[in-house]
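**Sequence with structure:**
===
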Amino acid sequence: MPGGADARLAGVTRKARPRDETTQTAPLPTAAPALTVDAGPSLTRLEVRNLATIRTLDLHFGAGLSVFTGETGAGKSIIVDALGLLLGSRSNTDLIRTGEDDLLVTGFWNDDAASRRVTSQGRSTARLDGEVVTLRELQDWAQRRLTIHWQHSAVSLLGPANQRALLDRQLPGELAAYTAAYRAWTDARTRLDALRASERERARQLDLLQFQATEITEVNPTPGEEEPLQADLNRLANLESIAQGAAGAITLLSDGEENALGFLAEAVRSLNVSARYDDTTAQLQRELREALDSVQAVVGELRAVAEDQAPDPEELARVEARLGALGKLRAKYGPTLDDVLTFHAQVEQELAALTRDEQDAGTLDADVAALLTDVRRAAADLDAARTRRAAPLAAELVGVIRQLGMPHARLEFQLTPLTEPGAHGLSDVTLQFTANPGEDLAPLADVASGGELSRVMLAISTVLGADTPAVVFDEVDAGIGGGAALAVAAQLRHLAQTRQVFVVTHLAQIAAQADHHFKVEKSVQDGRTVSRVRLLTQDERLEEIARMLSGNTSDAALQHARELLG
C-alpha cells in the first residue's frame, strides 16, 4: 500500500499532501486555459483508493470543461461513483476492490477537504478537514459545492414540486411574500382549531388552576417561615418543663441556702483589702463584680420564665394551624415551601395564558378571515408573476432544447387553480411537453423518454444555471449524435464558462470541446484488472477523438478529429 494512503487512513488534513510516486497522477498541463469560476470554490483534486477496479488514483482538476472518455466497460462512471460517495450516496460494499478491507475517497476544494471511508463490514466514516462528522453533515457540505446529474437523475424533473420550483426560483420576492402570508394564516387557523377542540378541557383546566391558585394565595406562604414557627410550637408545647428548669436554676443561683450569688458576693468582699495594694487583684475584683451583676440579671429573666408556666391556648392553636396549612401545601405542591411558591408562579402564568385564549377565541375567527384574505392576495400576486415569467422562460428553454436534437419540441408551464390555498400558492405548476410535430402538449412525466429528459435537464442547467460551482453529467449525451451532439457540446461549453463542468461521454463532439480530457483505461496487472485515469496530451487527445469517431486512428479519422479540435 502506498505510504500516502496509509497516512490518509487517520483523516484528511487541510493541506494537500505531496503525491506518492507509486500513485497514478494526472497533473494539469501548463497550456490548459484558465477559466474563472465565480460561483464558489471548485473541485481541485480527487483521491481514490480501492474503489471497484481502481487501486490508487490521484487526479488534479482545473476550471472549465473536463471530459472522461474510454472504451465501453473501461469504468468511466467510477469517477462519478466516487464523487457520489462524497455527496452521501448509499455505500455499497460491492464497490470495494476485491480482496481489500475498505475504500477511501477524498475530495479537495482548495484548502478544504472531504472524505468518506467504507469498510467491508459496511461501516461508513465521513470526515471534513480531518474531523469525523455525520453522513448528513458531509452531504449538506458537499451539496453546496457539487451537483451530479446521473444517467437517470433527470427523472427528478417528473416531480411536480421540482417543476414548480423551476418557475418559482425566478420569483423570490413574490414567493417569500406568499410563504409568509400562508404561514401566518395557517398558524392562526391551527390555534383557533385547538381552541375550539379543547373548550371543555380548557374549562376543566381553568377550574383546577383557579382552585390551586386560590388555595395557595389564601395561605400566602413566605419563604423560610416554617423554621421559626416550629421553634415557637416546641416552646409553647414545653412551657412547664421550661418553667421547672428555670426554677431549679434560680434556686442554685439565688434562692437556695447556699447559692451562686452569695458565693460571688463573699468572693468580692474577700478581696477588699488585697485590692488596695495590688492592681491585678483589683482588676480581678472588678471582673467578679461584673459577673455578680450578670448573674443577678439572669436570675431576673429566669424568674419571668419560671412564672410563665401555662401556655396560651390561642397562641398554640394559631401556630399549629399555620404549620398545618403550610404542611398541606407542601404535601400537594412541594416538597419544600420554595417549590410551592414556584408552582404558584407557574399556575398564575398558565391562568393568564388560558384567560388570553378565552378572550382570543372571540376575535380569532375574524383574524383568520383577514389573514385568509392576505393569503389570497399574495397568491394572486404570485400567480400573476408566474404567468408573466412562464412564457419567456419556456421560450428560452425551448430554444435550447430544439438545438439539442429536438427541432419540433414545445414546452409550456401550465397553471392549474386550486380550490384552497396550498403551501405553494393557489395553483399547481406543471411542465407540458412534446417533442413531436402535430402532437398535443402533455405532462412531461407522461410523454418524455429518458434521453429527452436528459436533454431537458441540460437545457435547464444552461438556461437557469447550476446551483453549485461544480456540475457532473454522467452520459447526458445518451441516444444522440450528429448535429444534436454538437449542440449538446456547445451547451456544455457555455455552462463551463461560469461553472466547473465534468462530463462522462462517448461522443467525440463533446470531448473536442473540453479544456481537460481524461481517459479511463482498463488493463490486467499481476492477474488483476486495474483501471486508471490519465490526462491526455494533445497528440493522445487527437488519437482518442479519432478512435471515438471511427473506432481507429486512420488518417481519415485523425483528420476528422483535427477538424473537431479546430
About this structure: The first strand starts at residue 25 and ends at 26.
